[in-house]
Amino acid sequence: MNKLPKWVDVALIPFINLVLALLVSGLVVLWIGENPLHAMQIIVQGSLGSAYGLGYTLYYTTNFVFTGLAVAVAFQARMFNIGGEGQALLGGVGVAIICLGVNWPHWLLALPAAIVAGALFGAGWSLIPAYLQAKRGSHIVITTIMFNFIAYSLMVYLLVNHFKPAGEMAPESAAFVAGSHLPSGHEALGWLGINFPKSPPVNVSFIVALIACVLVWLLIWRTRLGYAIRAFGLSETAASYAGISSFRIIMVSMLISGALAGLMAVNSVMGEAERLLIDSVQGAGFVGIAVALMGRSHPLGVLLAALLFGLLYQGGAELEFELPSVTREMIVVIQGLVILFTGALENMVRLPVENYFIRRKAGN
Amino acid sequence: MDLLVVVQLLDSMLRLSAPLLFACLAGLYSERAGIFDIGLEGKLLASAFFSAAFAAITGSVWLGMAAGITASVLLALIHGVASITFRGNQLISGVAINFLASGLTALIGQNWFKIGGRTPSLSGDARFLPVDLPFASALADVPIIGPLYSDLISGHTILVYVGLLAVPTTWWILFRTRFGLRLRAVGENPEAVDTGGISVTRLRYQATLICGLLCGLGGAYLATGMAAGFIKDMSAGKGFMALAALIFAKWRPGYALYACLLFGLLEAIAIRYQSIQIAGVGTVPVQFMQALPYILTIIILAGFVGKAIPPRAGGVPYVKER
Amino acid sequence: DPAIIYDLGGKFDKSFNESAYTGAEGWKARTGGSYREIEIQSEAQREQAIRRLASSGSNPIVMTGFAFASTLAAVAPDFPDTKFAIIDSVVDEPNVRSVVFSEHEGSYLVGVIAGMTTKTNTVGFVGGMGIGLIKRFACGYVQGVKAVNPDIQVIQQMTGSDPSAWNDPVKGSEITKSQVSSGADIVYHAAGGTGVGVLQAAHDAGILGIGVDSNQNHLHPGSVLTSMLKRVDVAVDELFTAGTDLSTGVKVLGVAENGVGYALDEHNAPLIPEDVLAEVEAKRAAIADGNLQVHNYTTDDSCPVN
Amino acid sequence: MTAPAIELRNISKAFGPVQANKDISISVAPKTIHGIVGENGAGKSTLMSILYGFYRADKGEIFVNGEQMDIPNSQAAIAAGIGMVHQHFKLVQNFTVLENVVLGAEDQILLQPSLEKARSLLQELAEGYELKVDPDALIEELSVGHQQRVEILKALYRRANILILDEPTGVLTPAEADHLFRILRSLRDEGKTIILITHKLREIMAVTDTVSVMRRGEMTATVKTTDTNPQHLAELMVGRSVLLRLQKEKADPGSTVLKIDNLCVSDSRGVERLKNISMQVRQGEILGIAGVDGNGQSELLQVLGGLATGTGSVEINGQELPLSGAGSDAQARREWGIAHVPEDRQLLGLVMDFMAWENMAFGYQHDERCRRGPFLMDIQSMQDYCRDKMKQFDVRPPSITALAKNFSGGNQQKIVLAREIDRNPDLLVVGQPTRGVDVGAIEFIHQQILDLRDAGAAVLLISVELDEIFSLADRVAVLFDGRIVGERVVSETNEGELGLLMAGIAESPAQAESRAISVTA
Ligand SMILES: Nc1ncnc2c1ncn2[C@@H]1O[C@H](COP(=O)(O)OP(=O)(O)OP(=O)(O)O)[C@@H](O)[C@H]1O
Ligand SMILES: Nc1ncnc2c1ncn2[C@@H]1O[C@H](COP(=O)(O)OP(=O)(O)OP(=O)(O)O)[C@@H](O)[C@H]1O
Ligand SMILES: [Mg+2]
Ligand SMILES: [Mg+2]
Q: Based on the structure, what is the number of domains in chain A?
């Protein structure tokens, strides 16, 4: 019941939330006995200060764009998909099957196949939670949490019993066929004559992530399905009045969400590891929650928030390297604080800001 | 299977289900009061770390436990402030708390002890040691009763018994006291409580704090009773499993005990046998055993085996004036 | 400068990684040099860690653990001017030194000690992941035990099939408790961080544990019978000392090279009487000069005794 | 003269931008039944909730028995001897009656003694006031009438001397209501003071001693019941002389559009809310459905709008309309040419966080006008259309990008109406079209509905406002307890007759049926 200027809602409040989260993080760093400004400098320097760092930042960003979009799409339908972790793991299985099973002549053929497989497997892993929510009202948060754990177990089982080449000790699949190798930043930019370092794992999946952002934006704001999803998310009762089927919206939004999470494997499994590892997701499914919250469930916001978290992740790795007393768990703390301030404690910031603007308007 | 193996398995089940039980009862108080809590995991972890850390520093497991409980209660308070005072999303708050606990424990652990985020190994008074119940050694040689009593029932740390006692106590508090009545009411219909002249906020904070306390005990048990020190992420999903047990138990203390024992038993089996041969079924991989609690919970949630109806006002912030 | 990357257990796992750490620190103290180190936190960080160090000019780069094998095989060709060394696995690249240990020989020796010490004629073994490397430990151990007395029963259990099996003390202690109740009075572990729980549980139950990799005798003085030494510390020191001149190829460290052995110090001396000491020393000499062949599980994926 | 039992001075309360109470003063004499009447949203419940400590007033003073009191919470109100039966019951559904009664009034830590005490007291009260209810029954198993008794028992158990009842009869059968009034009288005769909120003038006249009238957050008058009459009260309530009727042409009904036979609808708990109703509406005709809120009107709207399932037969232009399963959803209803203006525009009719142009297509997003290609929306065309409609219906402000929640109630309703009427539906079902809408807008909305009728549509109008029925409808059917208890031609009936029907004091269903046939045939 208020008329806040739009920029307050989409920019100012998230910004204040972020500043609060960073302030508290700074206090933690201070408590550990390091200089927060110095730590900040290392993070920024390490993530943006060199082509090398940027390459890693963008690699992480790619992961977080996928999982962030996954959470965001579900949020639009007021579904809280905590299962990105499991869906991304399963997406990895799909991608691995494609990259191991076919002797691809060229990555341009392998990539679409892997996208389809990753999306299908990811969506498949959200199918049962979605169905149970839609048909039986089983809380999606609980079921997706359960499915994350089931996915971990399934992953170990699959790797140990099916993917692991005989005689190998580590639970990981064989290396993917050479034809499924995605051009890295080094190679791709090399075609344009740009010299980009060899090691960072950023690869053409980054482009796929950007395309996914555009497609999600189109879906949510330009298609009739997106219209229905948003209507359902904003008012379930009104949606039923309009003849929008709750079953259909829950299923569709959760399947799209799962598919997006599964797509993350194209970057991490196919693009980076080039084999299926046991924890290829590394918590990115959860980072997606923070990303979607910060990004206000809008693809552009998700992209920016994913960049922020990519920066934190890469910077965090450098931080650990440079300041041994600040381990990379610092990033997990920052992530928790961002989720706390932008998600759970939103009203703490929003109410005073709202009051301020309402009073200012009244004053005029 | 001979008696010895069974006793061993049950013995192990008791040990393994104790942390689940604490967390499950913790969740029970919170959710019965209408506050969903997926941050049980984080509270367990925080408590595990701080109890081990303080036990290591002070040499006293009791001081350690107090520190663990304090940490867990502080996290519970954050959850309370977010979800009661500021009417935030309880699920998001829970997620945030899990992250905070996971990050802070490793970070502080490394900072304090510089051994990779773990605490030094605890020994002597810095740990909860098994207590022998009266007559345990005297009865040990009596057939059947002997092993059952002196191996299975006796010889656990004090916290295991506290956990078991917490079950009837919780039942009694919920169903036999004024506080319990109000607590259950506030999770079903906070307006009824409010118009009855009782503060919804206060009740919910109380429930959250009890939740913190119990998670604190669970964490202390994890690090100073079951293990001899803290290692990174040692709660390893137990908080979520407790949540599963809570749903499985349909938010009732007695069933909660059974659910936790069942999950503990599954874990005990999974630890001992890397694969299990079942006649007619074939080999059951250990991963299936590990996933079984979650699968069972999904089946319950799906409503195929009885319906788990959560407290009606659960997860919804109490808003009096829009 | 040289650099080292520790595996998931971290450099303070009181075991394998810690032994590598001791070696690195020893080198530093001795030469006054400096080195860089990374403890990886997850599987997916392996590659970043290697590349990070290689790009920043560290040379040679040592990594501890077989799990680095596939990653290293993929990364090493990208840095032809950098020398890499991997411990516990063989990577066939021109710039990689592979260091493997004859764990079966060391395990055989502690098996002999266990066999001569057990009173219940039952001893236990707790492995980490059920992989070939660990079965090599187990098989050597069983051979040693049975060499003393073929009637001794050896209970063997693995902790799990994924890397978390290296870092789960609670699981280790649960398994140990179950072995104790089955009559074992000595339990040997080859389970990294999980072993902390094994030794703890052995101590709590009043039986003897046997440590692995590092000398773990001090963890519970009087309750750790001995430790199977795998001189990762010696290997790391040697690799660091060789520096950029490191020769590549495979190097096997066994009893003869003093790469493996058993620990004897003030903590466990009272536990090992003269006759046991004499016997195990005799075996050690026999293995060293080739008179005694201990079967290596990984050569044919099978063990002659069980 | 004794001090008033309750005196409120200059109470004001705002909910955000809504000024629910403005500077209200009222005085209630002890040992009387004091009625408060007012339209929906007048602020009656808010005022009483302030007195009961559920809300805090922004300003104003409260005196109880002559003493100034601060009532920060319900506990304080209870301590001051005030009890309240809320419009929406505040009971814990899966608790027993006993547990609900003691909740918040337990006198010690242990529960059992309190429960025992309550059990015996309940017994006494039950006998004293005819308030029988099984103390061990779960609330969810009780009828609403019994649930209300529990609420009254709750108040009495807390030794309330001043009892507030907020619209207690809205959900009661007439027999239950009469029973309630008997109880209220005997409570008063025992020395208790009772404040009765209702918007049913019949009840005010029947049981109160004094009556206060509220309108739009203000107190407009307090009079002795014996000194007034319903007509006068009604004028005070709506703030104008009643029956401001539009000029309307005589209906010229054509062929039958809607034919309902033996329609039954049950709610989610399986309680039958519509019982074998039958009716017909023809082209160019408005059939009004009158009745007290909660007698099945919502279910009728829902089943026709595709929001609920039912059994029986409904025909549209002679074709059988599916009442459950495939093809019975709201989308399908629109394809059948049924437009639905829901009772609750904020909950159903609009997505409050959608912009005006998005809401203008709501439910019709698959129309040719809204689509571009197989997936996309034609945003340009949707916006142009919205701009047109907003001009035509004089929606203010005329901003197509404003969110629905930022329009006033009347303008929100205009958006819904514009959208539904514009499709030239064969049948328009409309619920409470002017609830919470001001006079100017009412006139406009009524005119639109009449125009639609004159253009040949069949209109089913559901309204609790008899005024509205008389202004618009050509025929009127009265719903009572899920049944149609009578049907009249509007020009041949009067408010008195309909009021009796609405109160359930009427002909038998069989009679109603035969009359319905004779009227429509
Ligand atoms: N908790 C609340 N938050 C915000 N607005 C409210 C709240 N309660 C009531 N209102 C608003 O205050 C105004 C007065 O409402 P109130 O419930 O007091 O009316 P009422 O006279 O009791 O109406 P009714 O006859 O429908 O019960 C309405 O506009 C209503 O929407
Ligand atoms: N929460 C709000 N924030 C901003 N503007 C509002 C809000 N509520 C109402 N308005 C604006 O204030 C104006 C008056 O609103 P109000 O609800 O008082 O109208 P009203 O006089 O009741 O009219 P109606 O009879 O049409 O309901 C409207 O133009 C509306 O757009
Ligand atoms: Mg009201
Ligand atoms: Mg209005």
A: 1
Q: How confident is the model at residue D518 (pLDDT cuts 50, 70, 90)?
A: very low
Q: Is residue A240 part of a domain?
A: yes
Burial of D314 (0-12, 13-18, 19+ CB in 10 A): buried
Name the DSSP class of A275. Answer: S
**For atom 28 of ligand 1, which residue has the closest CA?**
D41
Q: How many CB atoms lie within 10 A of CB A210?
A: 14
**Cβ contact (<8 Å) for A234 and D353?**
yes
**Cα dist. B230→B39, B122, B236 in Å?**
19, 9, 12
Specify the ligand 2 atom closest to the Cα of D408: 17
Q: How far is the CA of A352 from the centre of ligand 4 (A)?
A: 27
Q: D256-344+422-520 architecture in CATH?
A: 3-Layer(aba) Sandwich (3.40)
pLDDT higher for D506 or C26?
A: C26
CB atoms within 10 A of CB D10: 13
Are the Cβ atoms of A241 and D405 closer than 8 angstroms? no
Q: Is pLDDT of A77 > 60?
A: yes
Element (H, E) at D311: strand D311-316
What is d(CA B72, CA A310) in angstroms, rounded to the nearest whole number? 30
Please check whether residue B23 touches A, CB under 8 A.
Answer: no
Q: B-chain residues within 8 Å CB-CB of A331?
A: 103
Angstroms from A52 CA to nearest CA on chain C = 9
CATH number given to B3-303 = 1.10.3470
CA distance D485 to chain B (A): 36
ipTM, 2 dp? 0.84
D285-290, strands of its sheet edge to edge? D338-341, D427-431, D458-462, D285-290, D475-480, D483-489
Backbone angles phi, psi at B224, to 5 degrees: -115, -10
Contacts of A220 (CB under 8 A, 6+ apart): A73, A76, A226, A229, A230, A299
Sort out which chain B residues have CB atoms less than 8 A from A152's CB and list them: 291
Superfamily of domain D6-238: P-loop containing nucleotide triphosphate hydrolases (3.40.50.300)
Which ranges of chain B have pLDDT less than 70?
1, 305-307, 321-322
CB-based touch D/C (3+ pairs, under 8 A)? no
Q: What pLDDT was estimated at residue B304?
A: 72
In angstroms, rounded to a whole number, what is the distance separating the alpha carbons of residues A102 and A88? 21
- Supply the pLDDT for residue A1: 42
Domain boundaries in chain D?
6-238, 256-344+422-520
CA B109 – CA B115 distance, rounded (Å) = 8
